[in-house]
Specification:
Elements lengths: L1 E5 L32 H12 L5 E6 L3 H7 L8 E4 L4 H16 L4 E6 L3 E2 L2 H17 L5 E5 L9 E5 L7 E8 L3 H10 L2 E10 H11 L1 H7 L9 H10 L5 H6 L7 E5 L4 E2 L4 H10 L20 H8 L6
Parallel strand pairs: 1-2, 1-4, 2-3, 6-10
Antiparallel strand pairs: 4-9, 5-11, 6-9, 7-8, 7-9, 8-10
């Protein structure tokens, strides 16, 4: 498959913990959990386990160049897609998808957020491979990876599945950050957490985006697909609307999607200080390596140390 790693976000929910020496918050994907590999580095290791680096593309923000430039130096330059402005996750998926389809019209694509943690990545990767195989055999529509929950969390998005049809289940609806009573009902009914990680046939994903967010697909058609047309890209992005992919594409197309459950793999999106603290409490003093584990850049923020520096109040 082709792997699209999403690394353009600013991670504002953890920004109080990630302020660098210059007073600028560091997006969490460029931070580490215990001073080793960054979250982006962990994601790249998972991506390289699925595909050669020539098929791994990373979408980043121009404003974050000081952090991603050194971490992505081993990728082909054409595979680092630099967004000139933030226009939401729809643009961050649609433009790279066009680049991929120009290179390979029959591409199967896996979309991966870069700021999540998996305690058991091998278990996740087995499910990703299964989702890729299913996307190739079926309609090609997105196969979402739903995390089997360990409790009624009110801060995650939930996927409500229908009856199982083999390895996947049809998506009935999405529920975003439900109150505790509803989260308890969802948990009891077998709903899944939405990881925002999915596989799809590239052309089917593009057609879905054309139906749901035509202003975005029309806007990126004018950009040369070799990722070097910086002037054309800046002009196109200046006109793009800011659109959330999950809300406008996935949630608006729920009945056309499938979900594949991921067995317990220790997933967290590290979206709040509380979830960060919960994750760190389960880790050994140094996280076990998954593949090669070079130490993070010396300017990288250690989220464990940052949380301790802010005291227990940060985790409340």
């Amino acid at each position: 498959p082709w792997i699209l790693v999403l690394a353009g976000g600013s991670g504002t929910r953890l920004s109080a913990l990630t302020v660098g020496p210059d007073g600028v918050p560091v997006p969490k994907q460029y931070c580490s959990l215990r001073g080793s590999r960054t979250l982006l580095g962990e994601t790249l290791q998972r991506a390289f386990a699925l595909a050669p680096r020539e098929r791994v593309l990373v979408v980043v923000a121009a404003a974050h160049a000081r952090w991603w430039r050194s971490q992505l130096r081993d990728l082909p330059r054409a595979n680092v897609l630099v967004q000139p402005h933030s226009r939401g996750t729809a643009a961050g998926i649609v433009w790279p998808l066009r680049v991929i389809l120009q290179r390979d019209p029959n591409a199967t694509v896996v979309v991966m957020p870069s700021d999540h943690h998996f305690a058991v990545p091998a278990r996740l990767l087995r499910t990703v491979r299964d989702s890729v195989a299913h996307a190739r055999r079926g309609t090609g529509a997105p196969v979402l990876l739903g995390i089997e929950p360990d409790g009624p969390d009110t801060e995650y998005g939930w996927i409500v599945p229908g009856a199982a049809t083999g390895a996947t289940r049809p998506v009935q609806r999405f529920v975003e950050k439900p109150p505790h009573a509803q989260a308890s009902e969802l948990f009891a009914q077998g709903a899944l957490w939405n990881s925002f990680l999915f596989a799809a046939q590239g052309h089917a994903l593009w057609e879905l985006c054309e139906r749901r967010v035509p202003a975005v697909t029309d806007g990126v058609r004018t950009v040369r697909a070799d990722a070097r047309d910086t002037a054309g890209l800046a002009k196109a992005y200046a006109r793009l609307p800011e659109v959330d992919f999950s809300r406008e594409v996935l949630q608006g197309s729920a009945l056309q999607l499938e979900v594949m459950p991921v067995p317990d793999c220790g997933w967290t999106d590290l979206g709040t200080p509380r979830r960060l603290a919960s994750c760190l409490a389960t880790l050994p003093e140094r996280s076990p390596a998954f593949g090669a584990a070079p130490r993070a850049h010396h300017q990288t923020i250690d989220l464990s140390a940052a949380l301790q520096a802010h005291g227990a109040s940060a985790a409340c």
